[in-house]
Amino acid sequence: MTTQAAEQLDRRARDALAELLLAMADDEFVLGFWDSEWTGIAPVLEEDVAFASLAQDEIGHAQALYRLLTELQGGDPDQVAFGRRPEEYRHARLLDHPRTDWAFSVARRFLYDTADAARLDALVASAFWPLAEVVAKMRREETYHLLHMHAWVERLAGGGEEPRSRLEAALERLWPDARCVLGGIDDAPLVAAGVLAEPLAAVEQRWLGGLAPVLEPLALPFPFRRAGDRWEPTTAPPGAGCRGPQRSDDFRWLWGEFTMVHRSDPEATW
Amino acid sequence: MQVYEVFRREREGGPMQHAGNLLAPDPELAAHYAREFYGRRQESVRLWIVPRAAIRDLADPDLLQPPFDRSFKKPAGYSTEIKRKLAEARARAGGGGGEAADAEDEDPVVAAGRKGVEQP
Q1: What's the average model confidence in pLDDT over A61-69?
Q2: Structural domain count, chain A
Q3: ipTM of the complex
Q4: N- or C-end of chain A: fewer Cβ atoms within 10 A?
Q5: Spatial separation of the C-alpha atoms in residues B32 and A239, rounded to whole Å
């Protein structure tokens, strides 16, 4: 069925689609692994279970997307997930940062989940319908992720001096790289082919339009100002290398962790 | 942090049953955690999340386990009476009194029904 859907796309759209699927899958995969680092050490037992469950959901989304990608261009999903060098991963630079402290992980996931939700909105009616089907399922799980992250951002913002200052510092640090989630993709052929409903720049505007009424009342960092009907950044653009190939030492460490078993015996089955 | 008791319904039409409890700082996070603990494997169609403080606990034996014989308040009291009346009715109808004696330990309604089948 994936082959049939792909046959309607020209060469350029198909290449861009493969690029998009790999970028999205790597985003979910790497975030899932970073957040699973909280297992056993989250602030309270209940949150430990909740955050690990969110992380597991992301790995599940990554699995579905890697599968779509290999149906499109051949190959083995496990090999794509675990068999590449660190510089071959295409996740956004937002996910190059380590887990750091709790406020940092909350801020990162909040920025990622909200940007991802805006991206999924633009894919739910995709002309590449196997992706539309996967996206419809992902969105249902993301409903809970969004609720949970909004709850945490509100609590840290109003939870006293230390939680608030840690959250502010994390957002300041993460904002430039957060914009990479909706960047680093050749989106024009995807829009032309109806795979993506609108350019990523428009998706970013929707994302910011949704975040302003959340972050501004809480007086949290939001480095954009209104210019007519658009949000304009008040800081420098994220620049080149939004999705590699340069990778942080932190990501290289994480890569060493999550590929350890695969590298010990790439042919193993279980 | 507060303790919340969680009740879950396994399938539509089923009863709400106590699932367990959890700690949460407020009702919203309590709902999130309840979902994680008792709903994330699609094992529930509905959850009730109740602060333990809202529960009126009653375990006084003077109220729940009174010392005198109160067996007449139990539904079995009615059951015995029905059994006696059925036996009388059978006797009046000329049915075998012996069978009624055999069926003494059975539910009288079931026994009467079976008797009807055996003697068309």
Answers
A1: 98
A2: 1
A3: 0.86
A4: C
A5: 38
CA nearest B36 in A: which residue? A50
List the one residue out of A235, A109, A248 whose CA is nearest residue A172: A235
Run of H or E residues at A122 = none
Could you state, in chain order, the average pLDDT of each consecutive group of 10 residues for chain B (120 residues)? 97 97 97 96 96 96 85 70 85 65 54 52
Interface test with A, best of B32, B38, B41 (most A CBs within 10 A): B32
Residue A51 lies in a domain: yes
DSSP letter, residue A84: S
Domain boundaries, chain B: 2-54, 71-115
Put simply, the answer to whether A151 touches B37 (Cβ < 8 Å) is no
Alpha helices in B2-107 (DSSP H): 27-38, 61-64, 76-92, 97-102
Asked, for residue A44, whether it belongs to a domain, the answer is yes
What is each CA distance from A192 to A8, A27, B36, in whole angstroms? Answer: 12, 24, 41
- pTM of the predicted model as reported, rounded to 2 decimal places: 0.85
CATH of residue A237's domain is: 1.20.1260.10
Q: What is the CATH number of domain B2-54?
A: 3.10.20.520
For residue B21, list chain A residues with Cβ-Cβ distance below 8 A: none
Structure-token match 């960047």, residue found:
A183
The H or E element containing residue A246 is none
Q: Which residues contact B107 (CB under 8 A, 6 or more apart)?
A: B79
For A239, the domain range is: 10-264
Q: Which amino acid is at B50?
A: V
